[in-house]
Recover the amino acids of this structure.
């Protein structure tokens, strides 16, 4: 199931469970806590909260969501930041872990988190985002739930700072057709990477391709299909289907079944990318696999450059790619339709 990072007001997000950064005492605090009380119905929610009593840091308790677009509000108490040497990191991890487990026990299919403790409690935003992302992704490795991390302020949304500045610079540098022309040669039925032309026994001579005279001879030079290449990599690495489709939510069990049972399976571009991410292929390997399915990562498309940038850095998490896409004003990877 997907993990998304969005910039929004959490009181306006629709999910089975909305997480509140609660006051440890049955009282209305500041920031997200106050906003949730105001949106849900201050008097009614405070009555429900008093029925719970005190909540220790790191623990999570639920109430009805009242006027929010949710079934439950999960109240968790984050740590007050001192210096990072007084258990703050462990407590914050517990906030996410306990909230997720509580949502699971309540039968929730979706949950939305604020960036816990990053407001008046002073937890550094970069550390807060790192912990939130790690705990959520660890949970999703073994559980099906739609998880949304809701960042309200612009500072939080781009707080991974240098990373997002780097990707903007990367896009600015590479967002030209020239890069594509340097890497690919034109071919009547698509584009081929120069170093992969020998797969087809075609000789590239600066400005022209020498093609066989007979079409049947030419077709007979077909290389491995997308399916065959992926299965070959999986076999070499000793991977099972579950190692692939449980790793990336863009590859469902049905998608994998269709892929496994059809030698000529043709994925859409972003399913093909998901396979490459699941297998953690380097950039050359990714481009080769995409080419076998008739796709590429174009230097003239910003979303493709974001994917290139992450793969080049060895970051294969779709959640990280989606966060970067959002930071530069683009849609999540799974929202691109072919």
């Amino acid at each position: 199931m997907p993990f998304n990072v969005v910039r929004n007001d959490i009181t306006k997000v629709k999910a089975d469970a909305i997480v509140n950064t609660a006051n440890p005492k049955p009282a209305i605090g500041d920031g997200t806590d106050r906003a949730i009380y105001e949106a849900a119905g201050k008097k009614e929610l405070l009555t429900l909260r008093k029925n719970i009593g005190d909540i220790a840091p790191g623990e999570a308790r639920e109430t009805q969501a009242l006027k929010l677009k949710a079934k439950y509000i999960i109240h968790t108490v984050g740590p007050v930041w001192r210096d990072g040497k007084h258990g703050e990191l462990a407590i914050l991890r517990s906030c996410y872990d306990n909230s997720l487990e509580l949502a699971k026990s309540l039968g929730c299919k979706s949950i939305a988190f604020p960036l816990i403790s990053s407001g008046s409690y002073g937890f550094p935003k970069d550390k807060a985002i790192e912990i939130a992302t790690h705990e959520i992704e660890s949970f999703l490795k073994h559980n099906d739930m739609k998880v949304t991390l809701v960042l309200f302020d612009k500072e939080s949304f781009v707080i991974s700072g240098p990373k997002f500045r780097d990707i903007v610079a990367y896009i600015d540098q590479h967002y030209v057709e020239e890069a594509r022309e340097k890497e690919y040669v034109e071919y009547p039925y698509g584009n081929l990477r120069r170093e992969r032309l020998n797969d087809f026994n075609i000789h590239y001579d600066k400005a022209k391709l020498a093609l066989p005279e007979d079409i049947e001879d030419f077709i007979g030079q077909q290389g491995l299909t997308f399916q065959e290449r992926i299965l070959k990599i999986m076999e070499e690495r000793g991977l099972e289907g579950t190692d692939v489709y449980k790793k990336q939510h863009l590859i469902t069990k049905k998608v994998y079944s269709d892929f496994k049972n059809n030698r000529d399976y043709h994925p859409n571009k972003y399913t093909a990318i998901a396979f490459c991410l699941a297998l953690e292929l380097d950039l050359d390997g990714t481009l080769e696999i995409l080419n076998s399915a008739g796709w590429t990562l174009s230097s003239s498309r910003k979303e493709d450059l974001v994917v290139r940038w992450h793969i080049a850095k060895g970051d294969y998490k779709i959640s990280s790619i989606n966060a970067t896409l959002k930071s530069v004003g683009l849609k999540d990877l799974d929202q691109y339709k072919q």
